[in-house]
Here is the input.
Amino acid sequence: MEAQRFPDDYVGIVAGASANFWTHQSAAWVWEARATLDDPASFIPLAKLPVINQAAVAACPGVIPGFIDDPTRCGFDPGSLLCAGADAPDCLTAAQVAAVRKIYAGPRNPPCRRRGISRGRSAPGRKSPAGTGRGAPGTPPTSSAPLRSRPQGMPMSRASFDP
Here is the structure.
């Protein structure tokens, strides 16, 4: 946040996982929650997360073993974990595979189906309206204006939110 508000304080910044564009990031959290919680069959138990992680890392080798260097070059397909028979701790059901695919695809804008957030990194060449890495002119860099400007009485619940 410091770098967004005072970019002239820096000559350069090394940031592997900077948390900027809070509105986008918050929309992604809702997207992930809806992918796994809207349908009880899509819920992914905590015990299955290491299975998904290990399969993703194995499908996306990086320079450092056990880490994914460039998620955009990853060929991981959650369908590779589909259970051959009944649900088991080392595989995913069809509904769970669909949920993981939705999470990996990232939030989409329903009218145009455009991806809202690039998987694993910011979109190349993307600039803010002001061209400074900040929000629209006159708004703070982590503006929640899109969420505050909703019509009065509009429900704000996970189930009704459609990023």
Notes: Strands lie at 108-109, 114-115. Confidence is low (pLDDT under 50) at residues 117-151. The longest strand covers residues 108-109. The two ends are 23 Å apart (CA to CA).
